[in-house]
Design goal:
By secondary structure, this protein is α+β, with helices and mostly antiparallel strands. The chain folds into two domains: about 180 residues, Cytochrome Bc1 Complex, Chain A, domain 1, CATH 3.30.830.10; about 190 residues, Cytochrome Bc1 Complex, Chain A, domain 1 (2-Layer Sandwich), CATH 3.30.830. The protein contains 16 helices and nine strands. The strands form two sheets. The chain has a five-stranded mixed β-sheet with strand order 5-9-6-8-7, sandwiched between helices. The longest helix has 19 residues.
């Protein structure tokens, strides 16, 4: 490869926040780009643009990452810049006030995008009462309450070496990279690892949010396997069969045969101790009952109707997707980081392919019966729909 992708990752996300400070992890992620002792916010942007690089970050439920992609020849610049942001951000008061408005706009943008908002609310409903159910962005009220002292206090406690991982992939010399990390990050003050946190309880429920829209946006979900659960490989195979591509059961039945929806898919998203398996579609309000009946039928009957042909096709699809993703240095870097965080070691592509290749039809059927058992479903609907519709309650039976 010609490129190197480098990331600084922290075990830090919305599940570690107190309710009054919900959104602070994401806000700190924004603020790290607003200047250091030797770089202004414009200097940071100009320096990365000057080499044609890409600089970005994200915050999730339990991880925050700051990463960049540059040519291999610019590796030292990447290490210098990212480590400077990570260690030496100055958090100017005027930038804090300005960025609060930006993040509030980001929250408003999500509120205006029902096809995205419905997923956020589903997680909030499924894990209600647990920090894992908190929104990553926070709320307008909690974001506006964040001040400089709370930012510095939270960052000093959360961004400890014991919770931090630096990784790179692509055109990188390992020994030289280690030397640069030691040079630029060796002074990072030590701190204790975070204490363990309880596994969240799951409360299946449904929520309807009436809005004057052309479509009803529906998300049906249930607790799925965690990122380290022994059934995770079976879960991913089942998801691929159910709604993971154009040949999946839901895509064929909902879009190709019935023209019920333009967008229809399922996904499995996992964290360290739990996960969520969900189905999404947007449809005409007059055909909502038909759509949800298909959702219930396809999930309830999945365990007893699996065929060796579709199991083999799903495994081949997953194998191809995984191998193709490895042609990207940033995809490799992300995979390295998650392997280290969740397993404490490098999980090879061959190991993953072998693991889901060994999943049997019996294991898939058993996992499907457990996952799609009655009473495990949560449902969120946004659009022109009445909460009194009895069709919602069939997922609780």
């Amino acid at each position: 490869m010609k490129s190197i992708s480098m990331g600084i990752w922290v075990r830090c996300g919305s599940r570690f926040e107190q309710p009054a400070l919900n959104g602070i992890c994401h806000f700190i992620e924004h603020m790290l780009f607003k200047g250091t002792e030797r770089r202004s916010a414009f200097d940071i942007a100009r320096e990365m643009d000057s080499v044609g690089g890409i600089l970005n970050a994200f915050t999730s439920k339990e991880l925050t990452a700051f990463y960049c992609k540059v040519l291999g020849e610019d590796m030292e610049l990447a290490v210098d810049l990212l480590s400077d942001l990570f260690i030496n951000s100055s958090f100017p008061e005027e930038e804090i006030d300005r960025e609060k408005q930006v993040v509030c706009q980001e929250i408003s943008q999500l509120e205006d995008a029902p096809e995205e908002l419905v997923h956020e609310i589903l997680g909030n409903r499924l894990w209600q009462g647990s920090p894992l159910g908190q929104p990553v962005l926070g709320t307008v009220a909690t974001v506006l309450s964040i001040d400089r002292d709370s930012i510095i206090t939270f960052k000093d406690a959360a961004y400890a070496p014991a919770e931090t991982l630096v990784c790179a992939a692509g055109c990188v010399n390992h020994d030289r990279f280690l030397g640069l990390i030691e040079k630029h990050m060796g002074s990072l003050p030590q701190g204790p690892a975070r204490n363990s946190y309880p596994k969240p309880s799951v409360e299946p429920s449904h929520q309807v949010i009436p809005r004057d829209l052309e479509q009803v946006h529906i998300c049906v979900g249930l607790e799925g396997p965690s990122a380290v659960d022994n059934s995770r490989h079976a879960g991913h195979v089942l998801n691929t069969i159910l709604g993971g591509g154009m040949s999946s059961r839901l895509f064929q039945e909902v879009r190709e045969k019935r023209a019920l929806a333009y967008s229809i898919y399922s996904y499995l998203s996992s964290v360290s101790d739990t996960g969520i398996l969900a189905i999404y579609a947007g449809c005409d309000p007059g055909r909502l009952d038909e759509l949800l009946t298909i959702f219930k039928k396809e999930t309830a009957e999945l365990a007893e109707s699996l065929t060796e042909e579709e199991i083999g096709a799903a495994k081949n699809q997953m194998r191809g997707n995984l191998i193709l993703s490895m042609e990207s240095s940033d995809s490799r870097m992300h995979r390295l980081a998650k392997s280290e965080f969740y397993f404490g070691r490098y999980i090879t592509v061959d190991e993953i392919i072998d693991a889901f290749g060994r999943v049997t039809s019996e294991e898939l059927a058993e996992t499907a019966r457990r996952l799609f058992a009655p009473g495990r479903y949560s449902l969120v609907a946004i659009g022109p729909v009445d909460d009194g519709n009895e069709i919602f309650r069939m997922f609780q039976r």
